[in-house]
Amino acid sequence: MLTRALISGLALLSVRCAQAQSTPVRDPKSEHSPTYFRAVRVFDGRSAREPLNVLVRDGRIDALAADLQPPADAEIVDGADRTLLPGLIDCHTHTFAAEMLQQALIFGVTSELDMFSPHEFAAEMRRAQVEGTAYHRADFFSAGTLATVPGGHGTQFGVVIPTLTEPSQADEWVQARIREGSDYIKIVHETGVTLGIKLPSLSRETIEAVIAAAHKHKKLAVVHISSRETAQHAIASGADGLVHTWLDEPIDDAFVKLFAEKKAFLIPTLTVLEGAMGVPSGKSLIDDAGLSGCISPTIAAELSGSFPRRPSARTKADVPPDTLRKLKAAGVAILAGTDAPNPGTSHGVSMHREMELLVEAGLTPAEALAAATALPAEKFGLTDRGRIAPKLRADLLLVEGDPTADIKATRRIVGVWKNGQRVDRDSWQRTVAKARKEATEAASLPPPPGSESGLVSDFEADGLEARFGAGWMESTDKMRGGTSTVRFERVAGGASGSKGCLHVMGALGEPQPRWAGVMFYPGTVPMAPANLSGKKAFAFKAKGDGRRYSIMLFTKARGFRPSMKPFVAGEEWSEQRFSIRDFDDCTGADIMGVFVGAGDKPGEFKLYVDDVRFE
């Protein structure tokens, strides 16, 4: 099955910069003046203090006091009716490209704690931070490779990773992660039952061994869970924290007591859990007056998504907020994290929704702000950030209003500073406006000539001509260094006794992400957007070798991150029909391409396709 493995892999190739993914700021190596915030309310990471004057010099907080005077060469920033906050720290993300960190910075997230990314990418990001060249993006800390079993959760995301099968492997596995540069160790304790799927998982003994090995080598051990049972085992085994809360059963008093006694923390990721229950959690952010000017069509598409709700899922919407209320009352540390860029989330912007959900679950606005600033810095040992205090980094967020009274005030962003340098959000907003204009213009274009009937190809005549667009072309993972192969041809004998059909054949290689198939381009040239908003569905007939195949829809709004739907091609011809709206709420106004092909298990495949059409 083609999963987020391919989507994540393609994110590495993304040219999202064409839709507002660059963030020009001044080079911190150049000469610059101190910054002086005059009479501003200060949330210092724990509580609000007002009014204070704050001086930033050479990338650090120099001083703050009510009677502090500005140096003659200082840039003055008015703080009237505004609040100065530490830069936000998102405690659960997945990052595959620097552009994601650039986007995070625009929305006030100055540091991200990544919970699984390619360790080579993580090392590159760390080098830039040490060299002082990461001024244009959020800082990045990462678990690197996660601990999971062969075929378990985490093996589907497009990165070939070393797995574990027994406790005796734990110590060497942890040492290997430390050599790669992992800042902390993440462990997967996931059977999938809560979410209505079945996954192999590490044994309890192996999980216990990995936690012990992490502690032996002075690293935090954090655990992915989705059920109360696995959560309780992880905490009892000495995990420093959970990177999700669970969705199935209410917490009981004994578990509350255990959690508190172990001094563990919880990163509930309420935003993505809403998405797991079929709710597009981020959709409310798109039209928010304080944020909308920075939300590109790509970001809006990400925020509008959600996971499919499986009938066998055991999720209960009231469990997460009830868990948080009880753990908060017991003094357990709650940290803010989004799990971006999963469906319904996007880097940076989703932190504002996460803090809102924390407040709805019973935290005060000040507690939600602390969950996104001082507490993450404390729990993950980031001693130079997370608070506004002398000598700490000047990673700052200035907003209109008082978010300690109204948490949504964090969305009314006046400015963001990274290492004392103000981020150029104006350039970002201009690029977003351009992308929106292009999207609007694309939606107003006429349908592609020849598309009126909706028929793409029936393969009745010799050749592989399409009735409209740039036609059919091969698509494989070779663009990502993969080894999969594909070829396609028209062959005699189609569905319902027709004269011909499309035969797609090839072999999937071992490395992930892997895919091989054909792409239909409805525009005049490959990947040019075509307005097919008058069509409601994409349909075709298929037969094959019993494998699971996929349809992926590429739109301009989502850049190079496709929406995907699976299908099985059996030995007999069958009708396949997919609502265009079901592809992450696609309108059909900017379709760049449709992929049909394989991406499941390695090996040879054979697929036959006929009567391809938009209806």
How does this model look, in words?
The protein is an alpha/beta fold. It has three domains: 4-14 and 447-614, Sandwich (Jelly Rolls); 26-86 and 387-423, Urease, subunit C, domain 1 (Roll), CATH 2.30.40.10; 88-385, Metal-dependent hydrolases (TIM Barrel, Alpha-Beta Barrel). The protein is 23% helix and 26% strand. Strands 1, 2, 3, 4, 5, 14, 15 and 16 form an eight-stranded mixed β-sheet that branches. Strand 23 and strand 24 (563-568) form a beta hairpin. Helix 11 packs across helix 12. The relative contact order is 0.13.
- Residue stretches low in confidence (pLDDT < 50, at least 5 long) are 1-31
Count of separate structural domains: 3
CATH class of the largest domain, named Alpha Beta
Helix content: 10-25%
Beta-strand fraction estimate: 25-35%
Mean pLDDT comes to 92
CATH third-level topology of the largest domain: TIM Barrel
Q: How many E strands?
A: 27
Number of helices: 14
The CATH superfamily title of the largest domain: Metal-dependent hydrolases
Assembly status = single chain
User: Judging from the principal axes of the Cα atoms, what is the shape?
Assistant: globular
Please describe the biggest sheet, giving its number of strands, its sense, and whether it closes into a barrel. Answer: 8 strands, mixed
Distance between the termini: 25 Å
- The assigned structural class equals alpha/beta
Tell me the Rg in angstroms.
25 Å
- CATH architecture group name of the largest domain: Alpha-Beta Barrel
